[in-house]
Amino acid sequence: SGSRSSKTFKPKKNIPEGSHQYELLKHAEATLGSGNLRQAVMLPEGEDLNEWIAVNTVDFFNQINMLYGTITEFCTEASCAVMSAGPRYEYHWADGTNIKKPIKCSAPKYIDYLMTWVQDQLDDETLFPSKIGVPFPKNFMSVAKTILKRLFRVYAHIYHQHFDSVMRLQEEAHLNTSFKHFIFFVQEFNLIDRRELAPLQELIEKLGSKDR
């Protein structure tokens, strides 16, 4: 739609076809199709953990990017003057390089900063090598954890502030499946601190209990 801010809606990050990561992504999609998300997030036998986390992180970035893209017209400077996830949680932006001291900004601005920052990390070949045999950096896991922690905030904002729009667009099943996949993944590898997940704790418990 013409009203969609092209700025916030990032281009999809593609994993090169024919690469090992592409095969991993295909494996992930195939297991997801089976409907068992707990199984789908497990590290495939003989695979490298960093590579598995890298492929899935790119996939979650694309999913969240797409989900947020559908509600950008409802997420405006006026409607979301602060980046929040309900009345108790407010997020301020800092990336440690360009913006060192956390700044208070509107949700669309925050999410634009966040998605641009994530995209820069994913495009950095020294952090996310796409070529076979190029090793992952020693700090890869901490970078991946920061990315996932920040991507979680976009889900939290959508659920708390825009769920009625999601319902009107009949996208709640899509959002819930994407979020459930995300949560099972970060739980499987312990990638996000429990405190960070607090804004959606009830939902997380509900999604998890259906799978026991």
Automatic annotation (TrEMBL):
Q: Which UniProt keywords are given for this protein, alphabetically ordered?
A: Kinase, Metal-binding, Transferase, Zinc
For molecular function, the Gene Ontology terms on record are: kinase activity
| InterPro entries referenced in this protein's UniProt entry, alphabetically | MOB_kinase_act_fam, MOB_kinase_act_sf
Query: Which SMART domains did the record assign?
Result: Mob1_phocein
**Positions of Zn(2+) binding:** 75, 80, 157, 162
- Superkingdom classification of source: Eukaryota
Which PANTHER family does the record match to this protein? MPS ONE BINDER KINASE ACTIVATOR-LIKE MOB
According to UniProt, the name of this protein is MOB1A kinase
